[in-house]
Amino acid sequence: MSFFRGRRLRRTEAMRSLVRETELRPQDLIHPFFVLEDDDTQIRKPIASMPGQSQLGLEALVEDVRQARAHGLSNIMLFGIPRHKDERGSQAYASDGIVQQAVTRIKEAVPDMMVITDVCLCEYTSHGHCGLIADGGVQNDPTLELLAQTALSHVRAGADMVAPSDMMDGRVQAIRRALDREGFVDLPVMSYAVKYASAFYGPFRDAAQSAPSFGDRKTYQMDPANALEGLREAEADVQEGADILMVKPALPYLDVLRRIRDRHDLALAAYHVSGEYALIKAAGEKGWVDERQVALESLTSIKRAGASCILTYFARDAVQWLQEY
Ligand code: PBG
What spacing in Å lies between the alpha carbon of 58 and ligand 1's midpoint? Predict the structure, then answer.
């Protein structure tokens, strides 16, 4: 008999563990939270298309973050939903904006939670685009200064890392320069380097109330058909000074993630986005798949493909599931 007997090492859990190549750890996971600017700081508004997730008032958020930390979650990403939106997204970079307030409160109340902030204008602009509008289109270079201001305001409020998600060209450089100029040389930038114009963001846009009021994001987010372009985007962000590169969404783009892993030596993040979460939740609720198994298999696969860390709405549950195994 001279064939490969792969089954020899699969006979017991101890044997399988011994040769397991990838391990998903609680500290790999980053949970996104939505903070809602509202007089009622205890408010919790469930997001219909994302079962288990809510828009949270400031104090409700602090409570959930405290609880999640106690259950073993160590990293969060913050998105803000401001009371007022305008053409220039001014609440994105206001020193007393909702995200800025939330960062400060969380770092006071739960100092050992790592707080990463999403840097973008779309939740703050009346038109819902990620940059300034002129002549009917999104203007790249005039937007850069506002993104840099937004990042700076988050860092001044106490953020541990900033994550630009707008897909304007040159924004990593603009943010890096602004942070360095103000003395924040040690503050890392996690760039949404390879972000596709994806239908999987649908539930997020309900959650963040950030759907564009006209047109779409295809003039700045990438065409799902392109992988080589993703490599160029990654390379550009490395040159501009990104510390962590992100690929988003995750499961449909694992080939891109792997190609970047093979080419660059930076830490990589993958964003398992709202639509990916919603699909698993919906099928799980119907009893068509086992939610926990499918979620953990998905996250393990993202890690196997090359991610060092994963943004996922399953993070809060997954850190507990992982401890139960
Ligand atoms: C903001 C932003 C989006 C997501 C993260 N940051 C939405 C978008 O680009 O339309 C999507 C996250 C998700 O779907 O979970 N630019």
Answer: 21
CATH code where residue 211 lies: 3.20.20.70
**210 close to 122: Cβ distance less than 8 angstroms:** yes
Using most ligand atoms within 8 A of CB, pick from 79, 120, 171, 217 the residue to mutate for ligand 1. Answer: 120
DSSP designation for 119: E
Instruction: Supply angle C-alpha 315, 321, 325, rounded to 5.
Output: 140
The rounded Å distance from CA 232 to ligand 1 centre is: 21
Q: Quote the domain boundaries for residue 318.
A: 23-324
Find the residues whose C-beta lies inside 6 A of ligand 1: 118, 120, 122, 130, 165-166, 201, 204-205, 217, 273-274
CA 318 to CA 248: how far, in whole Å?
20
> What share of the chain in percent tops pLDDT 70?
100
Q: For atom 7 of ligand 1, which residue has the closest CA?
A: 201
Say how far apart CA 224 and CA 157 lie, in whole Å: 35
Q: Is the peptide bond before 249 cis (omega within 30 degrees of 0)?
A: yes
pTM above 0.90, yes or no: yes
Q: Which residues carry out catalysis?
A: 195, 248
| Residue 1 predicted with pLDDT over 90 | no
112 within domain boundaries: yes
Separation between Cα atoms, residue 184 and residue 176, nearest integer Å: 9
